[in-house]
Amino acid sequence: MSCQENTEFSPQRYARIAGFLYLIVIVCGAFAELFVRQKLVVTNDAVATANNILANEQLFRRGFAADLIACLCVIPLIMLLYELLKVVNKRVALMALFFSLVGCAVQSVALLGHFAPVVLLKRGLALGVDPALLQAQSYMALQLQGIGYAVALAFFGGTMLSRGYLILRCTFIPRVLGLFLVIEGVAYLANSFADFLAPGIAPTVFAILMVTGLAEVFLCLWLLLMGVNVPKWEAERLKHA
Fold first, then answer.
1. Residue 22, CA distances (Å) to 129, 178, 181 in order
2. What's the average model confidence in pLDDT over 139-151?
3. To the nearest 5 percent, what fractions of the chain are helix, strand and coil?
4. What pLDDT is stored for residue 241 in this prediction?
5. Where do the structural domains in the chain lie, given as residue ranges?
6. Whole-prediction pTM value?
7. What digits encode the pLDDT tens for the residues 96-144?
8. Are 64 and 115 in contact (CB under 8 A)?
9. Which residues contact 117 (CB under 8 A, 6 or more apart)?
10. Cβ(104)–Cβ(28) below 8 Å
11. 80, 159, 219, 225: least surrounded by Cβ within 10 Å?
C-alpha cells in the first residue's frame, strides 16, 4: 500500500468507491428504464399501459425506487469524481459537477411523472373518476416523465463532454475512456434534441446512444477494478499546485 493511501484522501480508495457507486447508478437506471417502463408502457395505448401498471404495481414501484436510488448515488459519485479530476483542470471539473447536479435534479423532478399513474389509477378510481380519463392522464404523465428524462440527458451530455475532456488530458486513467465519453456526450445531446425536434428519427438515435453508453460501463469497471495510477495522479496534483 502506498503512503498516499494512508492519508485521509486516497485517490485509489475514492476511485474504487466511485466505481461502486457508478455501478449502482447504471444497474438501477437500466432496471427502471429497460425492465420496468419499457416492459409495462405500451406505445400509443393508454388502456393497455394502465392495465399493465395495475397488474404489476410492485414492479412499477420498484422501478421508481430504483431510479430514486440512482439519483441519490449520483451526488456522492460526482463529488468523488470531482476530487479525482480537479487536479487536471479545476474549472472544467466543476463544470462537469454542475452539469451533473442539474441533470440529476431535473431527472428527480421528472420521476413524479413515473409515480403519477399509481396515484391516478388507484385513488382516482376510488373517487369515482372516469377510468378512461384516468388512463389517458396516466399515459400522458409517463410521456411527460420521458420528456423530463430527455432534458436531464442533455445535461448529462454536458457532463460526459466535460469529464471526457478531463480524462483525455489526464495520465492516471486511460485516455481512450475519455474519447469514448466525449462520443457518448455527443450522443446524449443528439438523443435529447432528436426527441424534441425530430421524433421520427429518435428511436435510431436512442439505439446509437445505447451503444455509446458502454463508455460509462467501461469507466465504471475501470474505476472499480483498477482504480487510478496513484503516482501519476500525484504528479498531476503537484504540477497544477
1. 42, 16, 14
2. 96
3. 85, 0, 15
4. 67
5. 3-239
6. 0.91
7. 999 999 999 999 999 999 999 999 999 988 888 899 999 999 999 999 9
8. yes
9. 49, 50, 53, 60, 138, 139, 141, 142
10. no
11. 225
